[in-house]
Amino acid sequence: MLEHLPALQVVLPLVAAPLIVLARSTRFAWLATTVVSYACLVCAALLASRVADGGAISYALGNWPPPWGIEYRVDALSAFVLVAVSLTASFVAPYAQRSIAAEIEPDRQYLMYAMYCLCLAGLLGMAITGDAFNLFVFLEISSLASYVLIALGRRRQALFAAYQYMLLGTVGATFYVIGVGLLYLVTGTLNFADLAERLRMVQDLRPVLAALAFITVGMGLKFALFPLHQWLPNAYAFAPSMATAFLAATATKVSVYVLLRYYFTVFDPAALFERLPTREIFLLLSVAAMVVASLAAVYQRDVKRLFAWSSVAQVGYITLGIGLENQAGLTGSITHLLNHGVTKGAIFLLLGGVALRAGAGAVTMETLAGLGRRMPLTALGLVVAGLSLIGLPGTAGFVTKWYLIVGALERGAWWVVAAIAASSLIAVAYVWRVVEAAYLREAPAPAAARREAPAGMLAAGLAMAGLCVYFGFFTSINVEGAHAAAALLLRGAQ
Amino acid sequence: MKDDIILRVVAKLLLPFMLLFALYVQFHADFGPGGGFQAGVIAAAAVIFYSLIFGLRAGERLAPPWIVEAMLAGGVLVYAGVGVAGLLLGGNYLDYFVLHADPAAGQHRGIFWVEIGVLLTVAGAMLKLYTMFAGRDRNEDGEEEGA
Amino acid sequence: MSALAPHFSYWVTLFLMVAGLYILIARGNLVKKLIGLAVLQSSVYLLYIAPGKLLGGTAPIVAAGFSTYSNPLPHVLILTAIVVGVATLALGLAITVRIREAYGSIEEDEILERDRAEGR
Amino acid sequence: MIVALCLLLPVAAAAWLALCHRRPNLREAVSLAAAAGLFACVASLSGEVLRGGRPALVLGEIFPGLPVAFVLEPLGLMFALIASGLWFVSIVYSIGYLRGNGERHQTRFFACFALAIAAAIGVAFAGNLLTLYLFYEALTLVTWPLVTHHGDDAARRGGRVYLGLLVASSMLFLLPAMAITWWLGGTLDFTPGGILGGKVSGGAAAGLVALYAFGIGKAALMPLHRWLPAAMVAPTPVSALLHAVAVVKAGVFSIVKVVVYVFGLDFEPAAFAWLPWVAGFTILAASVVALRADNLKRRLAYSTVSQLSYVVLAAALLAPLSIVGAALHIAAHAVGKITLFFAAGAVYTAARKTLVSELDGLGRRMPWTFAAFGIGALSMIGLPPAAGFVSKWFMVSGAIEAQHWMALAVIAASTLLNAGYFLPIVYRAFFRPAGGEMHGEAPWTMVAALVFTAALTVAMFFWADLPLALARSLA
Hints:
The complex is a heterotetramer. Chain B is mainly alpha-helical. Chain B has helices at residues 5-27, 36-54, 56-62, 65-88, 103-134. Chain C is an all-alpha fold. Chain C has one domain (5-119): Helix Hairpins (Orthogonal Bundle). Chain C has helices spanning 8-26, 30-52, 72-103, 108-119. In chain C, α1 runs antiparallel to α2 and α2 packs antiparallel against α3 (72-103). The model of chain C has no long low-confidence stretch (mean pLDDT 84). Chain A binds chain D through residues 387, 390, 392-394, 399, 401-403, 405-406, 409-410, 417-418, 421-422, 424-425, 428, 432, 436, 439-440, 472-475, 479, and chain D through 59-64, 68, 130, 133-134, 137-138, 141, 145, 148, 151, 155-156, 159-160, 163-164, 167-168, 171-172, 175-176, 179-180, 182-183.
């Protein structure tokens, strides 16, 4: 069965969704979701270890050999993304039980699980497929599911946030498919490896250039590349807790993966980075995101919104590596896919617990007052994840920052080093607003009783916060995987 | 509209033919344009047409909501099941060659069931969309329906 | 004209694309925005399908007497894209209906106004 | 093994303290036992280090080639001995202080105290820059709850300045400096003789020195010194142990370590030429501020700022004798300054007085406290028979050896200034007529603690062998 792992990776959550709809039972839905999430993690881990030992795995769907059939292709990069996504899923799934029970009406809860499974299937499919159009289909599966997940938020703003996200997300996906169409018209193939080969032979580069622009903007919309990030803060702020945690930790990351895949393995990186101002564009946009979005985060009153803005800034860290285009920079970027996923996942999972106990849809600075006394473990977890967001040593965020700084030094981009330092400094400001509210403000009298979040939710959040520290010290998963992936991308560049 | 006798008679007369046409489009797809997508839409159109004339409730008697939802999910399962069957019979996922001793016949068998799945899902989705939107104004007074 | 005529399908595609985007951006009505989105997506269907047609080609089903067929792959792709488009549109409309129930309006500026009033 | 134990002991103590928060006596017993145990552990390592051994411990690599590693060398041992020894004394003092003043959240206080010591030990034992940075930042974070202990607006403001300046300096300057060092040298291990020799020169070298000097904000070089007075909102035991010993000494300790083991004493002097001027300015300017401060703790804080810059100044001269002086001064200033803070806290607890101008005649009511204060003041000025004299002697010798007359002039001038702001306090306390109400000494644990540290200050003058031996093996 092991050779079918690439198919199982996607099919398991994809089959779980209709089963959940058929069963119409919340309990079964949760059970199926959890089992599938863990199964996906096992698949991803097995795939990653096989890729690490024996190189890329190719799987021909329907036994039609590529480039005619659809190929699932797992290499170091996609294995890393698969692990990152399914790792998050395995924490979110057990968490979902209490969280969904508290936030969604009983007769709709199974739909929430089904959508979550679809979203998971779509994201995993995006990471694993080797076919440009198949990627679009998975992109839309995950996007449609995520629009529904967001729209199920408790407050009415969730509806409008979902609508806006849907509009911009669909434009992004449409742009992507336009880009793929142009590439198909020029080369007559949709398989990534085949595309790369045939693009080398193309004489007239104008449609290829147009395709590059469409794919960049389209994916940029999906992963909230500054200044295409307008949809993100509201979408994350108003979605149900588990949806925010899951999407914040995974959705944007997989879209960045798509861009990396195109930039380094489909298009000719030598031409892309030498003949076009790609490097400058990505450095500038990333730095702008890191600074401007962080500043915006400082001024938010709604805590979920605050961290949503911080996500925009952190996407800047991830795209910085594209602009640096060297081993250290790309390692930093790719490892941040996982590091930031774990960090933001922990924060939103814990905030979900806070929202549940506060009984309100919104978590504002006032809600957090006295959290250190009322929910000491939750507050501690938030602090730990916040430190990782800042990038203090001993946390996952530091690992990223270190590689990015070294990468910037190698590139001779001193101003980028300064920007990374400045951005972390602003991160201190917004994280410390939360810490001060939690520890130095007295709780309002009626809410002063000590009451932690339900055990399942708390455990998931704390476990993820623990991972922030684990990945800060024991880097065999996040750094070695990212290192191999970066080496793979740069090998494609030669 | 169910008070109009002409509509009622025509609807009842047309309905079987529409469903039959759907089946034709479905099964003749090996030799001409057609397939599960088109057939599904035609079949769903028949039911929608019926409920346009006789009212939503009558339509729901014809295709109860739970059946519609089951069709939606079941179709996907049939599709995925074909893929898994390929796996179990020793091929890759969605491998039709192994579904029959003769690979060509295997392809036939595989695509047949896949198209059945598509038919079910598309028809289910169309019906679901229709009832979802048409069912809206019945409970205008604040009560909400699943989206 | 000579540059236009042989590529007229591209011009139509381009027109639809830009028109769709324009509607999407310029209109404040949520339903009209969705229409713009649908137009934009239609332009993609055309982008894929039009070049797949061979003059004199027939439907790609093997039969005696035909030797030129249109390229079937774009059709398959676009069938999928259409399904995706329908799903998106349906979801968009469903959300719009619920927005109308929650806000009493489907005009973007009015909704934002009401959110702002609540935020204060 | 013992190295690991030294790190684990305070952390374990903190966890245990948190568990027994309902039983104060047990809690304090745990604290004292942990401190005694820690001191014993560190002391047991000193023989090996003096014989030239370097006990080491490596805990997994964070980055390829960059492990979390601990190597115990003389300077680190000295810092660890001071921190752990004075921790014990501080706990004795804190028990009296916290109970005497009815402070809240005492468990949190003792737990964070233990964690801060753990971080300080981590800094002391760090075998490479990355490890040092790790614990350096940890030290900032775990002391923040102590600084904001009171939880009121003043505490919040003080906490913001404290955290903001320390984290900002380390992130903006120290982290890039580390990355540059790694990029240039390919290693961050503390290597005798330095790792940057010959790899960087000219303006770039001076810039790197600046990144380190200002990046290590805990050394309180002007203009990054403001966190130290801001931290004075904390309860006095915190000011005493952390802002006279653990935190600030972690700063100057890091500077000395970077100078000795990263740049190396043979590094081109031109790169360091500007640093004595900044340090000299800090010494004089802080002394002048201290001269004008009426709040006793504020005066002590600025005195600390100026004393810290002695260490930076001495280290920047790159002369072997001055490095010995710098290392010695870390120890000498620690025992002297903690005595002064203890005395200030005792005055506050017994008489509720915080201003210098209110101290008239208190020396006759609190003779032990003010006698100890006098000894501490002598040490700050650098007069015998106090520890400060020894370290100052070496610094002056170092300045002469390096023929750095500016440094000599600064040390001389600041000695006068020190005398100018410490002696009037002693004079007031003993020779001015007393004011109104009657009160005695502070609780006995506090008095015992401050007498002990005062005795230690004197002892370090007469028996300076151990610290001197440790310091000499540096240069």
